Amino acid sequence: MEQIIVAGTDGSPAGTAAVEWAADDASRRGVPLRVVCAVERWPYEIVRFPRPDLPDTLNRAAEKVLAQAEAAALRRRPGLEVTTRVLQGAPAVVLREQAEAAAALVIGSRGLGGFAGAVLGSVSMHVAGHVHRPVVVVRSVPPSVRGEVAVGFDDSPACEPALAYAFEQAALRGAVLRAVYAWQLPAHAFAPEIVYDLDGIRAEQRRVAEGRLRAWRERYPRVQLVEDVRQAHPVEALGEVSGGADLVVVGSHGRGAVGAVLLGSVSRGVLHHARCPVAVVRS
Prior knowledge:
- InterPro entries: Rossmann-like_a/b/a_fold, Universal_stress_UspA, UspA.
- Residues 3-139, 149-282 form the UspA domain.
- Pfam families: Usp.
- A ten-stranded mixed β-sheet has the order 3-2-1-4-5-10-9-6-7-8, with helices on both faces.
- Residues 114-120 and 255-262 have low confidence and may be disordered.
- With 283 residues, it is of the alpha/beta class.
- The chain has helices at 13-29, 54-76, 91-99, 122-130, 160-173, 198-219, 234-241, 259-263, 265-273; strands at 5-8, 33-39, 82-88, 104-108, 135-138, 148-152, 176-183, 225-231, 247-252, 278-282.
- It is elongated and about 70 Å long.
- The chain has two domains: 5-138, Rossmann fold (3-Layer(aba) Sandwich), CATH 3.40.50; 148-282, Rossmann fold (3-Layer(aba) Sandwich).
């Protein structure tokens, strides 16, 4: 793994926002930024009417996109080491390959090819579901710093990579870390007469949350931690706190064969509903 942040862009507003977010992150870490643009030729290759100049035309367009992206990154973080690459292939495949060799991948929530009104594009959904590196999906960069990072976690070891990334981000930013542990009572449609000791359950859930965070508190003693244990659906809870956060971090427990399934229902829901950039960290 290289100590480098990779951002993918296609010149769309979300792509530009991803480059700006990545420039900030690379600057905080003191590492270079690589901006890539994927050129997929097949949608334009019409066999009956071939164009010999097609590769050059598409490459020039990609180079223009990258020049604008580099300028945006340097306006935001003057002095940052920025490199650019035009890469051939389907965007999802290219970005997955680039991510595997980087510390993190940053992409826009929806590119130029997305449906109008769509919150999350197919490329960002596919990449976030497959990559074993942190993938940050950016719709827009908040106009001002809010000073808080939020992370969703549960009682399983699979959430540890997400907690690691969230604590690191909070430490780099000097931000408060809000650790959200959302729990729900099981639904017993056929046994409504079951009575729960809610006070006892709340106390037990708080004990579990504190136990999961104890080692991280010791590892990052300077990070101000807010333990947010609440009875709610995780997507609802994280969507609510995203309005006051600079970043929401989620793990992914999905185990299916399709990209959207690999994300898991919670990470997929947060990507759709969060009001700030979201980092998906697969276990």
